[in-house]
Each structure stands twice: as C-alpha cells, then as structure tokens.
Amino acid sequence: MGVDSMLRGTMRVNELGHLEIGGRDCVDLVKEFGTPLYVMDETLIRENCKRYKNAFAQSYPTETRVCYAGKAFLTLAMCRLIEEEGLHLDVASGGELFTALQAKFPSERIYMHGNFKTDEELTIAVRHKIGRIVVDCMEELERLNSIAEKNGAVADIMLRLTPGVEAHTHEYIRTGQIDTKFGFHIENGVALEAVKKALSLKHLRLHGFHCHIGSQIFEIEPYRIAIEQMFSFAEIVRSETGFVMRELNLGGGLGVRYTPEDDPPTIETFVASICETVREIASRFGFDPPILAVEPGRSIVGEAGTTLYTIGVVKEIPKVRTYVSVDGGMSDNPRPALYGARYFAVIANKASQEPNKIVTVAGKHCESDILIRDIPLADPQPGDILAVFTTGAYHYSMASNYNRFPRPAVVFVKDGKAKLVVRRETYDELLRCDHKLD
Ligand SMILES: Cc1ncc(COP(=O)(O)O)c(C=O)c1O
Can you tell me the distance from the alpha carbon of 167 to that of 213, in angstroms, rounded to the nearest whole number? Predict the structure, then answer.
C-alpha cells in the first residue's frame, strides 16, 4: 500500500508527478508560503461537515447537532466555515471561546467544556448566553449558579458523565471506575447527586447528559455500551427525580487514517450505527428519542490537513539507519513525541516515483525529535519537499514555540486558490511578550 491509498479529498498526483491539493501544486505552495506549511483542503473539510449532517438527517427522527470540536483546529476562518456549514461548535477554553466570539460565531450554537473552567471563562460564557455549558464537577455547579445569578441569567447546562467505557483505536475497556479527571461518575452515585443538585439550583437549566469515551476510535461497540449506560442512568434519574433527559451528547472520537493500514469506519457507518442504537435503546427504556449531539474534531479536519516540510539533511549511518531531517518537528507536530503517533508521507515533488529507501524522518528539535520511523521514500535529497499526511487535527492547535520556533502558516486550498488563514509567525513576534531590556 502506498501513496495512492492516502490520497484524500481533492489530492492527486499531477502531470508533473507532484502532489496537488485543492488544485494547487505543493511545490508552488512552498514557493509562495515557505515551509513548514500546514495545507488544509477546504473542500474536504466542508464535505466532511456535510456528510455528518446528511447522515444524521437520514438516520434520526428528531433534532441532531454536530458540534465541531474546536480543540482539533480552530482559527477565525475555521469558525466561519463551521458556521457556514450549519454546525455547532465545542470550545474547551477561554481562548477557543474568544476566537469563536471574535469570528461572530452564533453564541447559541456554542458548547463549552473543561474540567476546570475559571470564573472568568464562565462569566464570559454566561454573558454571551452560549448554548450549553457542559458542567464537569459539583463545585462548578455551585460556582456557575452564583455567576449566573450575579449576571441575572439562567445558564443552560448539560452534565458530563463517565459512563464506564474508555476506547482508543482498536481497544476499549469496560470499567466501573474510570481513572479520569473528567465528569461525574455514574457508578459511585455522584452523577445522580449532581442531577439533584443541578435541579435544585435556580440559575441553572439542565437539558441532558454528555459523555466522551475516547479518541481515534475504530469500533462502534464502545459507543453502544456508552449509550446503554447513559439511558440506564437516565431511567434512574427519571424515577428518582422526574427529570427527563431531552438531550444526549456522545462526544467525539471517530478515528481517521494516519497510515495506509488504518481502516476506521466511515462517517456514514458511524452515524447510522449510533442513531440506530439510540433509537432502539431509547424506545426500550420508554424515552422519546432525545436531541442527539456528537462532537467530532479529528474526523472533520484530520485527513484534510497535510504538512509540507523542506528536507535539509540526509545522513546515512551505514548498516544502521538513514536520517532525513526536515525544517520542523515537534513544535508543529508534538504527537509522535507525546504518544508515539504514526504517520505516512511522500516526497511532494517526486510523488509518482516508487519509494526506494526506508528512512527515518527527524525534526530539528533538541529532544529525540523523530516524526516518522522507517518510512519508504523516493530517493530523498536536500531541497525536496516532504508532505506528511493527516495533520489537520491536533497539529496547528498543539503547535508550540519550543526552541523558539515561529509557528508555521496555515493555508486553505480550494479550486486552485490558496487562502492564507494564519500567517507564519516572525522572529519579532517571538519576543512580543518579553519585557524589553534596558
Ligand atoms: C469532550 C470532547 N469532545 C470532543 C472531542 C473531540 O474528539 P475527536 O477529535 O477525537 O473527535 C474531545 C477530544 O478530546 C473531547 O474531549
């Protein structure tokens, strides 16, 4: 399996044998914008948004909400795109909320998350009347209630629950007590207490429950278990308090393809399965189908992103390994260093050539900054452009200035045009918060 199996959206290998995205030759993009460069296929992002919306429209009888998880990739342009596609937006910090508000994203379509939301963050959320605040702990219930009271408001909330299943890629575990900082545990009774507390507080309006079971998930079964748990909890709540769950938010987590071996379910399969499961389990427990929300991040932007680097050094250690060093690394992609994430890449200016060498791609940073181990490439040489696939989610949003690297630019490409949505940071900007020396 090679480069063909990784081509997504508008990607293709053009007549010059170069990788092309959104009708733009990657070699030309590099001439115009430099490297490292995050290239986002706008058409594919929009298509993924539409696929989620259409799949829900076909499979679910009442209202659904696709809340794009901004933590995956958020800029003003992305907020605008999400708004135009009719999605909701999940924010997880004051900075993400600020970005959304600056982009004039409709506040009633914003969901706010976090295991510790500061008073400042909650106050902004309340004053802007955002759609839902997803409350994570007992202390936050009290604090949010008094912030809402001070602002003469009633905050619309959901409770984040820990449903006893945790999933990542091919593995999931079913466990009563998940060791997590997030949410109210169902098993130990805290979740029920939280519902009672929320219902007793005058400045909170409870709509339903939320859970998020993990990331880069390739299986549907853990979602089924989580849905079952959420409804059996909702039934207990209904009989103990009379509160009826009208909204259910199942979080994000659908996986994407980082390498040719990855084979996640399609958006359509995922959505159809969870809709069917929710309908079936709701009816078994005697509930009307609730408003159903999901919070996809990675599966909307992940495969739409490609990072372009310039190869600077090729160092062959005979009988050991060949290192190919590029002009970026863990400051633009911390995922390999953080959790051993695997990637696939191609030399953008030799995309039609057969790979003839197994190499290791190294970043420029001081730690053991390895981006990809043992990848076949076509005769890598200094000056070549390396395109690393599936870097649209948790890359720009996790980028840092480690080693005082300026963060790369981000371009949206579509129909032969490239739009600069974030320009490259300058060296001067690295000093913008430093106090000037006398
Ligand atoms: C609460 C919540 N919702 C949604 C997401 C998005 O997950 P993904 O990008 O895997 O779809 C996350 C990711 O951590 C999350 O914590």
Answer: 6
